[in-house]
Amino acid sequence: MSEMPKAYLPGDIEEKWYAEWESGKRFHGTPNPDKKPYSIVIPPPNVTGILTIGHVLNNTLQDILIRWHRMKGEEVCWFPGTDHAGIATESKVDKVLRETEGVNRRTLGREKFIERVWDWKKQYGGTIIRQLRKLGTSCDWDRERFTMDEGLSAAVRKVFVQLYNKGYIYRGKRMVNWCPAAQSALSDEEVIYKEVNGKFWHFRYPLTDGSGYLVVATTRPETMFGDTAVAVPIGDPRYSHLVGKTVNLPLTDRQIPIIEDEHADPTKGTGCVKITPAHDPNDYQVGKRHNLEFINVMNRDGSMNSVCGKFAGLDRYECRKQCVAEMDKLGLLEKIEDIVHNVGFSERGGVEIETLLSDQWFVKMGELAKPAIEAVRNGDIKFYPERWTKTYFHWLENIQDWCISRQIWWGHRIPAWYRGDVNDENREVYVGETAPEGEGWYQEEDVLDTWFSSWLWPFSIMGWPEDTPEQKFFYPTDDLVTGPDIIFFWVARMIMAGFEFKGQLPFRNVYFTSIIRDDLGRKLSKSLGNSPDPLKVIEQYGADALRFSIVYIAPVGMDIRYSNEKCELGRNFANKLWNACRFRTMQGPVSDSFNKLAIPLDKLTADEIHMLNMLEHAADDINKSLSEFKFHTAAHDLYELVWNNFCDWFIESCKPSFNKSEESKQQALAVLDYALWKLLRLLHPFMPFITEELAHLMGFVKDGDSIMTAAYPQTDLALPANADTVSGLVMKKYMLITAGRNLRLTNNIAPGKKMEFHVYPVSQELTDFLRTDEQTYSISAMLNASNILVKFGKPEDMKQTAAAAGISVQYCDAGAILAELKDLVDPEVEKAKMEKRVAELKGWIKGCEAKLNNQNFVAHAPAQVVEGVRAQLTDLQEKLSRAEASIKVLQ
């Protein structure tokens, strides 16, 4: 057994073990019919990405599952990879080229630009994968894939052709969400709606016959150049006589008709609505009903096109400003109304989207959604937390056709070819996995939505459409860990794809991670400056500390309040475990029976039975929690087991046995070794690095082997039938020992000073237990007592006794413990100290009360600051109560 360093320094240890794991192929999964399969696929991070705290949580939870199932003896495989992230990557590389070389994608052209993107991907694209290794993720890196690998690209082409031939994919002119920044269409799920302050401009549209005007309202004056009608409510007596007439469209030389339509609501404003069929989805439907002209007024970049006359070339917002000014100048601005409304923003581009009419490719989703709905409804696929099923059902039951074409270059180019004039709507179309033979064919310029490759991920990553051993063994996968923000983008679509192309579900369970916020409740973001760099956190605290801390603070289905300081919990926990093992190495070599307890049950002490019983219960609880995706509960159980039960109590309870006899010492060490080895294995999925290091330092694992293939603890130890009863008695003993130590602390009696204690247990059963020689010896040693007198009596009876001069008493749920202070303290000196302490406490209490009585402070200070003051006041009041009690004892 190696001599352990005094302190745990995670940096070198983490680097050493990850290199050994990877070189030893510890993460590699191979189809093995003799084992039960377990597999998960990583939610592929963007190739442009860098590690975030969100990635830390998501991948830590996946790694816990993988390591747990590996230790259960299953053949596991965690399939990793990255996503080509079409719009994000194209924008990133375009920006780099403009900043470093003064060129952009347009000046380079399609082929040259794509070559540069591949070059960039080779140089920088693996950053996040390298960073994930720092976290300790045990992915099968031999199977790493990229969504534009040739194999995955072949899968995309096959799926497109198959759906096209089935009549599910079509090309049509439809209203789409348009991102002026990316100059591409977006799916509905790629639009984020935000509440913004805006305005309703009420404009007068003059009647062509000069008899008056109609008032219409708009939030987007710049679209008026595309107006092709004014709609009035059906049968509205205010306007019935005007139907069929026309109005002059301001700022143009056109007249547009007045029509009746259900879209016009008589209860809203004047009831009149300007109809812009090419720039509003509702107006689009009106335009189809009345056979109106569809006029697009914008260029791809959001600037105004030639339809807009003198306003052509202006940015859309500048055009809005000038249009309003011109309408005001012409006396056609009725009024301006301030409003708050929801506006759609591009998820990728971050700019306000435009809705416009465009030729795009779509997938009909109605039939694809049906088996996906049923699989979740009948429980074949389970969601954790379950409440996300409501969101899932609502979206799928109201699903719209999926716009899959994007007007960018980086991505899977749509496998469609045309022959004939580019403007000819009747040109010849060919869709196939390979280019058509013959002359005159040219390929579709658009590429597919990034998610069109991602929805195939669970099986394309395993080699589909080829028939591979991996699919036969590892598909369907078992669990998916992901964020709720991509339940539509990815989760629902993968389920649809699984049924459509594999004939079965892609996974059985979906765990949705928490949303991570800062201590003020704000979502982490670079713009707010509250998004920590995980690599710096790992450098400061260690990967295990970060992993354990973030799981510890992440209850199922609740937002996380994260700050780097919370990683101190994990670092302190790692140090506690390290010091416990170091203490053990100082007692001699590890027992041969560390893997299987060889001590007869009737030889075990009560403390040993209690520790072993706690281990059994914890193993059962932790396995159950992990099977139910209650990672947070499992982390809390582990913390309590290691910190409280093992380190604070069991190790302390072993020390008296070390001094009693050689036989008792060896027995205590054997139980301690058995417990330590079990603890390290229970902890390994959560804290892989330190547990691997300690397993080797302690001699539990030989060189060349790994803790990750050791058996995960189960409830397999036969303990005495009364083990739970014994545990209850031992825990009450620990309560009384704590009370005795508090008694020393309250009276400023040094821990090394011998003193006599009188113990009054709460029950006869506990009294009989504590009167045994084993327990009297144990309590004496743990309290450093000169003598222990165990007396049965009601703890409340001690109040009168404690009132006597020189008697100090402490109460707890297990009873009471008291001591005579005669010859232990100088009453006058201690009394003076306590009186000074009381004066200080009263001063601090007065300060807290003054703050809390200040209504301005309570009303305007951050909530956590006010709560902090309240908590401080409670703590000070408790300390004052103890100090005043001590003075009474000394009088």
Characterise this structure.
By secondary structure, the protein is of the alpha/beta class. It is 45% helix and 16% strand. It has 29 helices and 29 strands. Strands 6-5-14-16 form a 4-stranded antiparallel β-sheet. Strand 10 and strand 11 form a beta hairpin. Helix 10 runs antiparallel to helix 11 and helix 20 crosses helix 25. The longest helix is centred in the last third of the chain and has 30 residues. It is elongated and about 110 Å long. The two termini are 56 Å apart.
Primary descriptors:
891 residues, alpha/beta, four-stranded antiparallel β-sheet, four-stranded mixed β-sheet, 29 helices, 29 strands, 45% helix
CA-atom Rg in angstroms: 36 Å
- Name the structural class: alpha/beta
- Overall pLDDT confidence: 92
Q: What portion of residues is helical?
A: 40-55%
Number of helical segments with 4 or more residues = 29
Distance between the termini: 56 Å
Largest sheet: 4 strands, antiparallel
Unreliable runs: none
Choose one word for the global shape.
elongated
The spatial strand order of the largest sheet comes to 6-5-14-16
- Residues in β-strands, percent: 15-25%
Q: Would you report the number of β strands?
A: 29
